């Protein structure tokens, strides 16, 4: 199926599956343990209904909003995802350019395959860098300096990945560190000629933001993976997050929080926003759906934090529900990766265009002309 036959975000999953070798598709698509949280992140939106109002002038609909001090054309943005070069040769640059063209924020992962400087050079759109507090604190501090030097708008600390979740699909396909491919998964590379051709003609896979550190240590490409794995630090605490927020001094986001108590700690250490997220169901299976965490967190922190709902967002109506429940914006990961794998930048462009169309249509059908008009009276919770 071509991307022009995709009519909603999840339609891109099938062409992505057809194009990608099996281990890579399941790396994107899968979650932890029984994948309950992965499924629940989306189905939880069904607990909420949108209340329409009629006979209002809806001839003009305005989706613009501001989060993290950034003007965005729509109330959602693209979550950070690592290793993008594996999914399409146009890699992060395609996603960042599509986001800039659509007027929304792009987030680059620490374990991205394009350097933060190259992304900054490729687009003038708003950008956020996703960071981990690594054992190598000097490298962590270096990221902050580099982001400041090239004008990143925000820094986002991911806190739910101190150790990797149990992703059984990756075990089965051999998408592990180091890779252990089965005959079946190796065959799937042979059966994905389009992907294989594009990979072989420019095999430029590198974790571009950390590669210099590994080179300095004398490591090769396998050394890189070992290096990154060895850098995850389970001893990181709120004190370290506070240190990083001070080092950065600009809009600071903590990604991966779900409890009101943690949201209050985020306020205390000077965060500007949190991404309410369970890492798309890839870490703690049984963690609650982000959409269900909005109300309790908003009640706990009032207006002291911007809330971004990350996980399971697949429809314009999902974004509208999240905003009505008290979120400032949403973000998503897999849908744009499916779009990228299916069609490069054109695929991501179409994902963003479809989301825009859904948002405009659904907002107008609710009788609203601006996303800022959404509030608690516009959403009903199913008992
Ligand atoms: C991710 N995610 C992620 N998060 C992060 O902070 N740093 C990272 O490097 C990555 N890498 C990554 C790779 C892939 C393939 C996926 C699917 C996800 C998590 C991501 O930012 C986001 O939280 C989820 O994708 C949100 O869930 P949905 O929208 O995919 O349902």
From TrEMBL:
Cofactor: FMN
GO molecular function: FMN binding; oxidoreductase activity, acting on CH-OH group of donors
Domain FMN hydroxy acid dehydrogenase: 1-383
Short name of any one Pfam family annotated for the protein: FMN_dh
Active-site residues (renumbered): 279 (proton acceptor)
Binding site for glyoxylate: 27, 132, 167, 279, 282
Chain positions recorded as FMN binding sites: 80-82, 109, 130, 158, 255, 277, 310-314, 333-334
Signal peptide location: none
InterPro entries: Aldolase_TIM (IPR013785), Alpha-hydoxy_acid_DH_FMN (IPR012133), FMN-dep_DH (IPR000262), FMN_HAD (IPR037396), FMN_hydac_DH_AS (IPR008259)
Keywords: Flavoprotein, FMN, Oxidoreductase
SUPFAM superfamilies: FMN-linked oxidoreductases
Similarity comment: Belongs to the FMN-dependent alpha-hydroxy acid dehydrogenase family.
PANTHER family: 2-HYDROXYACID OXIDASE 1, S -2-HYDROXY-ACID OXIDASE-RELATED
Protein name from the UniProt record: Alpha-hydroxy-acid oxidizing protein
Organism: Govanella unica
Taxonomy of the source species: Bacteria, Pseudomonadati, Pseudomonadota, Alphaproteobacteria, Emcibacterales
């Amino acid at each position: 199926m071509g991307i022009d036959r995709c009519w909603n975000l999840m339609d891109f999953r099938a062409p992505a599956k057809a194009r990608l070798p099996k281990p890579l598709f399941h790396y994107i698509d899968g979650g932890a343990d029984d994948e309950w949280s992965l499924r629940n992140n989306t189905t939880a939106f069904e607990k909420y209904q949108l209340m329409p109002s009629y006979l209002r002038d809806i001839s003009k609909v305005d989706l613009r909003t501001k989060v993290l001090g950034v003007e965005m054309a729509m109330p959602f943005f693209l979550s950070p995802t690592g290793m993008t070069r594996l999914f399409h040769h146009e890699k992060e640059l395609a996603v960042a350019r599509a986001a800039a063209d659509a007027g929304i924020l792009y987030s680059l992962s620490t374990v991205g395959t394009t350097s933060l400087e190259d992304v900054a050079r490729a687009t003038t759109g708003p950008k956020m860098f996703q960071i981990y507090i690594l054992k190598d604190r000097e490298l962590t501090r270096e990221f902050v300096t580099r982001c400041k030097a090239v004008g990143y708008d925000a820094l986002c600390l991911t806190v739910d990945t101190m150790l990797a979740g149990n992703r059984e699909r990756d075990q089965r396909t051999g998408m592990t560190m180091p890779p252990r491919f089965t005959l079946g998964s190796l065959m799937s590379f042979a059966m994905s000629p389009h992907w294989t051709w594009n990979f072989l003609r420019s095999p430029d896979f590198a974790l571009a933001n950390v590669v210099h550190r590994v080179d300095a240590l004398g490591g090769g490409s396998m050394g890189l993976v070992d290096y990154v794995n060895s850098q995850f630090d389970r001893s990181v605490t709120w004190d370290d997050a506070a240190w990083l927020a001070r080092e950065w001094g600009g809009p600071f986001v903590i990604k991966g929080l779900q409890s009101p108590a943690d949201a209050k700690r985020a306020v205390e250490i000077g965060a500007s926003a949190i991404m309410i997220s369970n890492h798309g169901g890839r870490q703690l299976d049984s963690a609650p759906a982000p959409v269900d965490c909005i109300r309790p967190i908003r009640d706990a922190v009032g207006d002291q934090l911007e809330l971004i709902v990350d996980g399971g967002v697949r429809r314009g109506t999902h974004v509208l529900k999240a905003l009505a429940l008290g979120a400032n914006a949403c973000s998503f990961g897999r849908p744009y990766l499916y779009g990228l794998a299916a069609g490069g930048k054109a695929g991501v462009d179409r994902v963003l265009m479809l989301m825009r169309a859904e948002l405009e249509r659904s907002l107008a059908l609710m009788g609203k002309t601006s996303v800022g008009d959404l509030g608690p009276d516009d959403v009903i919770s199913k008992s």
